[in-house]
Amino acid sequence: MKYFAIALAVGYPLLALWQVHTRKLRDRLDLLIVLAAGILFLLLSRTITNWQDLPPWLWLVGLALLAGVTAYSGWAWPDLPWLRPARPRRRAVSAALQLLVAAALVALLV
User: Which pTM value belongs to this model?
Assistant: First the structure.
């Protein structure tokens, strides 16, 4: 379980950084979902692993990477539309549901 927590805490922010840097995101809602998932995975990794099993610097690396992704996403934000032009209503409903589930899980984990 310890390695799974490391993958969530450090691996996902690295993946999110790659997505923002290579501009793989379709719209601003994708960016918000990626950031919400990063917060969720960091909290989930904190919950499923004993804090004493992993060194504190490892948690700080995950937190710093997520903070870096959040700051770096400001670079991609102006170039992204709120919704992609194809099926905007379906996209808005899908993103709202994903963010609602993420917020509910964060509330449970905190």
Answer: 0.81
